[in-house]
């Protein structure tokens, strides 16, 4: 990952992919990829969740496709939801900076 590019999946040199948490930028362990470059359903990272989007959907941070949440952020989101705290989760600082940068360019 470069400093300017925000991605939700990181392909590896061995043909696997690593998911990137949209809240803390944590990477999952490498997992098998399906034909679309997504983690294979039989080898999904344990505890990770996905917000499915079409592969060509562009998010505010410039990333494409589905977004992912790591187990730690998922627990935090559940705890905040139970306590009535909002917002439940926020984008990572890198993603917030990229959103601001893209808005300035417009």
Write structural notes for this entry:
The protein is built from two helices and five strands, in the order E-E-E-E-E-H-H. The chain has helices at 71-83, 93-105; strands at 9-11, 16-19, 31-32, 49-51, 67-69. The strands form two sheets. A three-stranded antiparallel β-sheet has the order 1-2-3, with no helix packed on it. It has a two-stranded antiparallel sheet with strand order 4-5. The longest helix is centred in the C-terminal third of the chain and has 13 residues, at 71-83. The chain is globular.
What is the count of DSSP helices, taking H or I runs of 4+ residues? 2
Rg, Cα atoms, Å: 14 Å
The geometry reads as globular
Helix content: 10-25%
Distance between the termini: 24 Å
Number of domains: 1
Which structural class do you get from the secondary structure elements? alpha+beta
- Describe the biggest sheet? 3 strands, antiparallel
Overall mean pLDDT score?
89
Looking across the biggest beta sheet, what order are the strands in?
1-2-3
Give the amount of beta strand, in percent.
5-15%
What's the total count of β strands? 5
- Order of helical and strand elements: EEEEEHH
């Amino acid at each position: 990952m470069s400093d300017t590019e925000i991605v939700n999946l990181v392909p590896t040199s061995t043909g696997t992919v690593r998911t990137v948490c949209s809240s803390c930028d944590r990477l999952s362990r490498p997992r098998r990829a399906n034909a679309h470059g997504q983690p294979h359903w039989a080898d999904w990272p344990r505890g990770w969740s996905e917000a499915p989007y079409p592969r060509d959907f562009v998010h505010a941070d410039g990333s494409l496709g589905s977004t992912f949440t790591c187990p730690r952020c998922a627990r935090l989101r559940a705890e905040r939801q139970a306590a009535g705290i909002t917002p439940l989760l926020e984008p990572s600082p890198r993603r917030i900076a990229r959103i601001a940068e893209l808005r300035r360019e417009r």
